[in-house]
């Protein structure tokens, strides 16, 4: 059954509470990708036309995060993007992260141990207080396992005027949460969760000081100032902007991102956030869970997975608990159905 939300249609939204795993595409995106697959099948696909979708996706990410377009680079995954960042931090750098952090945000830094880089895990409150004592903070704005939200304002205040680099994975926030992160050295997000796009693309914004310290280890033809003029031959000629860190686009993924991100950026983001938090917080009240302004809710309820599956509720299990997420296409019917299944 098709459901309309925020001016778009979504086919599988009824009972779908699994957006922290993957988001549902709006129908206009499905139509565009289907049409493009048809041109591929027929041998009439126009490859240079994907450049327009790359540009639109980049601009959409910049608008959603509140950063300049020229600071945004295109990657394939969060970990590959952060690999470039981790390779650029100095030998012996001290990195701090949250205990239990999603490993795509931490493994790239832990893999630098041969250079003397250390990664320390702290509880969120301690991390915020101690951030300025470290060279790098690498953490998610919203935790994948349980939806916990970092006190980003306290972190900003704690590192203001210091040399501490801030690296924030916003994959589980961007799309439902309103953010303004122009002060952060690195933001990064995959597009296939709350950004409603096919898997295969991630976007990363870079501060000037971070960008200057990085080496484009994956330099390729698409990282050139004029990509179609840098297909063959030396010398190296890369873009002056963060585009010099671009990877070659994953066609159908960037097509989707070039449609979905501008759509999300065009919405009233306060209204989207209020909608998602309204559903999540009502669930917390109904189940007498601790307050937490997050669209992700962790439910440590025995037997819940089986009950949800029988009721046709689509969710996931993370860190030993049921994890549900409320996005712009969810409504009160999904919440009531979830509560009924949990109380069965």
From TrEMBL:
GO terms for molecular function: lyase activity. Keywords: Lyase. InterPro entries: Aminotrans_V_dom, PyrdxlP-dep_Trfase, PyrdxlP-dep_Trfase_major, PyrdxlP-dep_Trfase_small. Residues 59-292 form the Aminotransferase class V domain. Pfam families: Aminotran_5. This is Selenocysteine lyase. It comes from Mycolicibacterium rhodesiae (strain NBB3) (Mycobacterium rhodesiae).
